[in-house]
């Protein structure tokens, strides 16, 4: 028999009171008679387990009204991430690579979600298929989605045709980080580089993306995200030009 | 009439598949291949061809008999057709900038429509009748559900989608639009 009224936790957390009532519909209620059943179900990964909790599929993907994450909370989290990672690596390169990997996981999600928010209401949703518009959208849209402001500049390398640079004068994730002198090579923006790499990968422009400190007198934390595209990308661009 | 949906990860491994039996009325397209073959045909290829032609309009021989051709409803034939369409999809997606690629490929009675998400995940749908708007709405629903799945930190682009809720929602949408 189902509970006579919705579980208090559900009624607080789920989006609508309606959905929490749904969760207790007769089809799923039988297992409530055995107290231990839900945890067993979860362990086995059966299909019904998710129904008892508010789940992501009930939520709205569009931006909530309050969109900003607390800067202090993020700085704290990010500093913990860096410390955690640093304890598990042997050198700066390794640390940057790990931060990059963590950023990559964010990037794949940012890309899907960002484009969904922009395109899902359009009649014919579009993808980026050309390189330059994609880079521009990283410079503006991705930066805006992640950091709340567009990046400061995007440049093409003069020496190498396959290199592009996105420049952020004051990366918000590094605002509260001062790198020790003996690790001056380290750029915590490798995390951002990972995000960029994931977005480029997703759009079909595989590249190696790294972060470098390029301080100027005016902007001591100025950071350059260096994008080195794979050869296949340039060849395809050549073909598409014709 | 049945429809088959495959969700493919960026490396083209299937992460979700669904067979939906539509209840919507179909304007039956006569099967060109089956009608070209005489009913009494004893050609060695007749069975294979009928199977490959893959339409439900082809009479089935599956009930109880030893002959099991399944009119192309066989899983492996469906998978092969879906797989074969990937070549065309990949060609088209380099040139077309729309996510919804309608009727990119045809294989006898099967029409293949695809949807490419920005993260390069592909939804491939095998269908027999023309229903562009319905399919588009269906794809949009699946996309939303997929984005939500992606947001789960335990999910990567290559994880097989096992969520029961995802499955239920996709079926619900299929029932509504297809």
UniProtKB/TrEMBL annotation, chain A:
Protein name per UniProt: Trafficking protein particle complex subunit
InterPro entries: NO_sig/Golgi_transp_ligand-bd, TRAPP-I_su5, TRAPP_component
Family, as annotated: Belongs to the TRAPP small subunits family. BET3 subfamily.
Gene3D superfamilies: Trafficking protein particle complex subunit 3 (3.30.1380.20)
Organism, scientific name: Guyanagaster necrorhizus
Keyword set, alphabetical order: Endoplasmic reticulum, ER-Golgi transport, Golgi apparatus, Transport
Quaternary organization: Part of the multisubunit TRAPP (transport protein particle) complex.
Compartments it resides in: Endoplasmic reticulum; Golgi apparatus, cis-Golgi network
Matching Pfam families: TRAPP (PF04051)
Automatic annotation (TrEMBL), chain B:
Any one GO CC term of the record: cytoplasm
Domain of life: Eukaryota
GO BP, sorted A to Z: endoplasmic reticulum to Golgi vesicle-mediated transport
One Pfam family hit: Sedlin_N
InterPro entries recorded: Longin-like_dom_sf, Sedlin
Protein name: Transport protein particle complex subunit
Organism: Guyanagaster necrorhizus
Taxonomic placement: Eukaryota, Fungi, Dikarya, Basidiomycota, Agaricomycotina
């Amino acid at each position: 028999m189902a509970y006579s009224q919705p579980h208090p936790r559900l009624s607080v957390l789920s989006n609508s009171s309606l959905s929490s009532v749904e969760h207790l519909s007769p089809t799923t209620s039988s297992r409530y008679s055995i107290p231990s059943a839900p945890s067993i179900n979860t362990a086995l990964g059966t299909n019904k387990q998710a129904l008892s909790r508010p789940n992501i599929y009930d939520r709205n993907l569009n931006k909530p009204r309050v969109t900003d994450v607390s800067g202090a909370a993020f700085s704290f989290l990010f500093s913990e991430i860096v410390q955690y990672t640093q304890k598990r690596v042997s050198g700066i390169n390794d640390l940057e690579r790990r931060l990059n990997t963590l950023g990559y996981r964010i990037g794949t999600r940012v890309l899907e979600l960002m484009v969904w928010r922009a395109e899902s209401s359009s009649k014919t949703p579009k993808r980026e298929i050309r390189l330059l518009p994609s880079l521009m959208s990283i410079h503006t849209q991705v930066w805006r989605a992640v950091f709340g402001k567009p990046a400061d500049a995007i440049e093409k390398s003069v020496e190498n045709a396959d290199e592009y640079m996105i420049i952020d004068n004051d990366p918000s994730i590094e605002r509260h980080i001062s790198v020790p002198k003996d690790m001056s090579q380290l750029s915590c923006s490798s995390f951002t580089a990972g995000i960029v790499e994931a977005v480029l990968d997703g759009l079909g422009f595989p590249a190696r993306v790294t972060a470098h400190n390029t301080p100027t007198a005016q902007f001591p934390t100025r950071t350059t995200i260096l994008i080195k595209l794979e050869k296949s990308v340039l060849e395809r661009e050549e073909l598409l030009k014709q | 009439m049945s429809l088959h949906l495959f969700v493919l990860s960026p490396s083209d491994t299937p992460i979700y598949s669904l067979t939906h039996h539509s209840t919507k009325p179909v304007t039956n397209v006569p099967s060109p291949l089956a009608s070209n073959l005489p009913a009494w045909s004893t050609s060695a290829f007749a069975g294979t061809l009928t199977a490959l032609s893959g339409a439900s309009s082809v009479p089935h021989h599956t009930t109880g008999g030893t002959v099991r051709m399944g009119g192309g409803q066989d899983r492996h034939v469906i998978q092969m057709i879906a797989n074969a369409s990937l070549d065309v999809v990949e060609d088209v997606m380099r040139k077309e900038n729309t996510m919804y690629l309608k009727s990119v490929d045809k294989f006898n009675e099967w029409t293949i429509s695809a949807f490419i998400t920005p993260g390069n995940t592909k939804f491939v749908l095998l269908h027999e009748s023309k229903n562009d708007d319905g399919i588009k709405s269906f794809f949009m629903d699946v996309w939303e559900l997929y984005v939500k799945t992606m947001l789960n930190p335990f999910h990567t682009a290559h994880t097989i989608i096992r969520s029961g809720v995802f499955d239920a929602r996709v079926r619900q949408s299929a029932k509504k639009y297809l």
